[in-house]
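This section describes the prediction task in plain terms. A model, or a person checking by hand, is given the sequence of a single protein chain and must write out its three-dimensional structure as a string of C-alpha cells. No templates, partner chains or ligands are provided. The sample shown here is typical of the held-out split.
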Amino acid sequence: VTKNFGYKGIEKTGYEIKNWFKRSKNIREDLTLTALLMERAGTGGALFRNIYRDFLLECLELIDDSNLQESYKMFCEIAPMWTEVASLIKSAGETQDEQYLYKASEIIFRLSEMEKTAMLKISLIL
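The expected answer:
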C-alpha cells in the first residue's frame, strides 16, 4: 500500500517537509511556489477541501446522517488549516527560516488524523 495518497500521504508529507530545506537549491522560489500551488492550483490544500466541504453540505440536504454531519464539520475546520500550512510554507520560503516548516509539519500531522477520521465516518454511511 502506497503512502503517497490520502491520509497516509498527508502523514508522509508531515515527515518529509522537515527535509525541504536540505533538498532545495532555491528555497525562496521552491517554497513560495509550493505554497502557491498548494493553495491556488488544486494540488491539495484548502482548494480541494473547500470543494469537498461544500459537496458534503449538499449531501446533507439529501441525507440526514450524524456521521455525514460530523464529517462536514470536520472539513469546515480542515480547509482553513490547509490554508495555514500553505501560509507557513510561504513564510519559510520568504524568510528562509525552516522553523515555519516545523510548525507546518505539526499541523499536517493533525490534518492527517482529522481527514482519516472524517473519511471513516463517511464510509459508515455507504
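For orientation: The chain has a mean pLDDT of 92.
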